[in-house]
UniProtKB/TrEMBL annotation:
InterPro entries hit by this protein: AKR, AKR2_Oxidoreductase, NAD(P)_OxRdtase_dom_sf, NADP_OxRdtase_dom
This protein's UniProt keywords: Oxidoreductase
Organism: Alicyclobacillus sendaiensis PA2
Name assigned to this protein: Aldo/keto reductase
A GO molecular function held by the record: oxidoreductase activity
Residues spanning the signal sequence: none
EC number: 1.1.1.-
Length: 302
């Protein structure tokens, strides 16, 4: 497994991590998948307090407790929920975050979180107070680094210019190249992108047949149907999913990708990406030509 650095944190990670949101509902199987990921060389595990209203963090904590010093745990905060009640509300207040981090530490069975991420963000948030709180968490040793999970360019620029964030988690794949517009600005600061959704909700794996009315970010069924074939043609020595994940980690601004896995076979296929040679410049150019980049139309900096 190739290694990378988690942005400005300096923390070493595997190039391919595990996004834990899509773990199976069976707890024993979920734990088994996480522990197999460790055996395969994956060291970055991403979760959030919102996933399963804390259940996902509990599973991650149980699975990784025996190897805590060998792995990097990332979780998120800001979406406030009431246990047992559906839905959530956005609450980035320092008072809530201080309570939430204690709950996450308990569920994760650890006394520190490697990467603590604001799970969204708006321009109306108490920015200075959030940053000051995250810095205090670092000083206290509760977290090693902090970041944001956001696709809003105005929020991203605000944190790039006014905080010590290490990373930005963004949806990025062959079918969602909107983040590329902001990669030069992100890369120049030393911050790095964690690419989530590298297989575009499964549309890039070749295991999902689109229906006539299916849509994904403006792409219709015909575009979705041809995507796995394009990946096979450009990179015939690997699966469409593997080529898609490699596309997502190719830019210099990206430090890693975190595909999910609900089955052991899926995990093993994804993990093998870390041992495959990177896509060539020619292969990347052909893929970019097949699916040109779009741009974010909302939440742009003024």
């Amino acid at each position: 497994m190739r290694t990378a650095v988690l942005g400005r944190s300096g923390i070493a990670i595997s190039e391919v991590g595990l996004g834990c949101m899509t773990l199976p509902a069976d707890r024993r199987e979920a734990v088994r998948i996480i522990r197999e990921a460790v055996d395969l060389g994956i060291t970055l595990f991403d979760t959030a307090d919102l996933y399963g209203q804390g259940w996902n963090e509990e599973v991650v904590g149980e699975a990784l407790a025996p190897v805590r010093q060998r792995v990097v745990i990332a979780t998120k905060v800001g979406n406030r929920f009431e246990p047992g009640k559906p839905g959530w509300t956005w609450d980035p207040s320092p008072a809530y975050i201080e309570r939430a981090i204690e709950a996450s530490l308990r569920r994760l069975r650890t006394d520190y979180i490697d990467l603590y991420q604001l799970h969204g963000g708006t321009m109306d948030d108490p920015f200075d107070d959030i940053v000051a709180l995250m810095e205090r968490f670092v000083e206290k040793g509760l977290i090693r680094a902090y970041g944001i999970s956001s696709i809003r360019p105005n929020v991203i620029r605000r944190y790039l210019n006014g905080s010590n964030i290490a990373t930005i988690m963004m949806q990025y794949s062959l079918l969602d190249r909107r983040p590329e517009e902001w990669f030069p600005e992100i890369e120049a600061t030393g911050v790095r992108v964690i690419a989530r959704g590298p297989v575009a909700s499964g549309w890039l794996t070749g295991q999902k047949a689109p229906k006539p009315d299916d849509q994904y970010l403006g792409y219709g069924a015909a575009d979705l149907a041809r995507a796995p074939g394009v990946l096979r043609e450009v990179a015939p020595d690997r699966t469409p999913a593997q080529a898609a994940i490699q596309f997502s980690v190719a830019p210099g601004a990206v430090c890693c990708a975190i595909p999910g896995a609900s089955r052991m076979e899926q995990l093993r296929e994804n993990a093998r990406v870390g041992a495959l040679p990177p896509l060539s410049d020619e292969q990347l150019a052909r893929l970019r030509e097949a699916y040109p980049a779009k741009v974010y139309t909302e939440h742009r900096p003024v």
